[in-house]
Amino acid sequence: MIEHLPILQILVPMLTAPLCVLSRRPLVSWGLALTATWFALATSIQLLIRVLAEGTQSYELGGWPPPWGIELRIDLVNVFVLLIVTAISSVVLTAAPRSLEKEISSDRHYLFYAAYLLCMTGLLGMTATGDAFNVFVFLEISSLSSYILISLGPTRRALHSAFQYLVMGTLGGTFVLLGVGMLYMVTGTLNIVDMGARLGDLGPNRTVLVALAVIVVGTSIKMALFPLHAWLPNAYTYAPALVTAFLAATATKVAYYMLVKFVFRVFGVELAFTALRLDAVLMPVAILAMFIASTVAIYQSDVKRILAYSSLAQIGYMVLGLSLASVTGLTGGIVHLFNHAIMKSALFLALACVVLRIGSTQLNDMRGLGRRMPLTAAAFVGAGLGLIGVPMTAGFVSKWFLVLAALESGYWPVAVLILLSSLLAVIYIWRVIEVMYFQPPPDDAAKLTEAPWSMLGPTWVLVGATFYFGISTSLTVGVASQAADLLVNGAAP
Fold first, then answer.
1. What is the pTM (predicted TM-score) of this model?
2. What is the share, in percent, of the chain residues with pLDDT greater than 70?
3. What is the CA radius of gyration of the chain?
4. Which of 100, 238, 334, 377 is deepest in the core (most CB within 10 A)?
């Protein structure tokens, strides 16, 4: 059974989804979905152990060896992404029953769990597959289920946001498919490793340049890189809080990994950054995302919308690490992928606790919440400190590596800009803290009780992880630095 772990990690959530639909009972569906997600987490941990001990794991499908057949390829890079997707999926789903009570009618809960598992299936498949066309197939599975999850929001704005995401997501998927088709046209293969080897021998030409451009545009839409971010603020704001906690920590992170996979595995450093100068495009865009999104976040009145624009800025940090095309820079980008997933999911889970009790995420409605819901407010503060990058939090570690990478590459102004953009995060996080702790509650405010531990528990697990991985970096930095070295220096995967 150990040999089949790569495919089981995808199959178990996929096959559990229709069981949730057949059961139609909320608690039964939740139990089935929770079992599938925790099984996937256990599988990703086991795969990480095997990759660290034995190297890359290749799983052949249909009895055809690669590059002729389809393979699942688990290496140091994507096993890290598999771990964060399955961990966040498991922790967030643990809080589901009570959170969903407030925002989704009970007769639709089973549909939520089915769509949740299908989205997770698509994300895991995109990460694990070694076939370029199947990246697109799993991308569509995750996208279609994401549209459903967002549309389950309690207001009509959720439907509008889901439709907006559908339009943008369709464009993104089309661009990715066009790029894959062009690469197949010039290389004659869909296996990612084989495609990279053949493209290295072929060198740059017009078709390769266009393929790189459309793949970068397609993945940028999916991960909401500025200025292709229009779908994300509304999607995060009007989706159920639990959906936002899940998608903010997983969907954009897998899209970022997809960009890393194509840029470094297929095109390679020499072709992408020396011949085609991808860094000249991505670095300015990343810096603009860091500043513009953080500035817009400062002026929002809905806390979910504040965190949505914050996510756009954090995506800028990750892309900046990629654009530096160095081991240290890519290490910072990959570590920030992991750290931001933990911190942002903790923040949105804290907001799910707020929604359960006061039914709103408007800043004015959260006045005095530090005294009315002290554990929830403290969780928000803890995760917010990580988002800022305060020392001894996970956010500090990844930003430190990005600053080091900028200095190593001679871009000292970029290092200064990273520090300045972090100060903007101080402002929008402080706005929430000020309202919760230094303003009196509304005159007509009802007496509140804390959120149930079924929701506070998962939230504080992620807050604890924010501080743990800020102090102990052997897993995050250790794995990410090895993975970055393999990608940047072109060592055998």
1. 0.89
2. 98
3. 21
4. 334
